[in-house]
Amino acid sequence: MTDPLARMTVSRDSVVDGGRVVVRLVGEIDMSNATELERWIDDAIGGHHAAAVDLTAVQYMDSQCVRVLERLAQRHSVGELDLVMVAAPDSIARDVITLTQLHQVVPVLERLP
Fold first, then answer.
1. Cβ atoms within 10 A of the Cβ of 105, count?
2. Rounded to an integer, what distance in angstroms lies between the CA atom of residue 55 and that of residue 57?
3. Which whole-number Å values give the CA distances from 58 to 6, 47, 75, 106, 109, in the listed order?
4. Which pTM was predicted?
5. Which residue in 18, 27, 61, 82 is deepest, having the highest Cβ count within 10 Å?
6. Using one digit for the tens of pLDDT, what is the confidence trace for 10-35?
7. Residue 24: in which H helix or E strand, if any?
């Protein structure tokens, strides 16, 4: 098995207001790890109905990461998941969220409360 093109870590912390699960993504997210990322996020969220995806430490994300975020946004738009995304104003993640207009579907915070 070859190493993925990008490295990524996901941590699960049951913190923040009202038991919202915080999923922190770190590193680079691309076609080599996006499928695994989606599984990790689903596992981290589990049966919770509120989640925050923290993208502040993401250094690179391609269209496959956008696909994962769009699926989460879809769950948010149908009321299945109370979702927020966290991305610094001058970050790659915020640029991608703005370009893809995900910020019109899911609230985007500059930092976690």
1. 18
2. 6
3. 11, 25, 22, 18, 15
4. 0.84
5. 61
6. 555 545 456 788 888 888 888 888 89
7. strand 21-29
Cα–Cα distance for residue pair 12/8, rounded to 1 Å? 14
Closest to 7 measured CA to CA, from 43, 46, 51, 61: 61
Tokens of 44: 């981290």
Instruction: Name the phi and psi angles at 50, rounded to 5.
Output: -135, 130
What letter would DSSP give residue 16?
S
Nearest CA among 111, 72, 71 for reference residue 94: 111
Give all domains of the chain, ordered by start, each with its CATH number. Answer: 8-109 (3.30.750.24)
Residues shown for the chain: 113
Of 25, 41, 39, the residue nearest 93 (C-alpha):
25
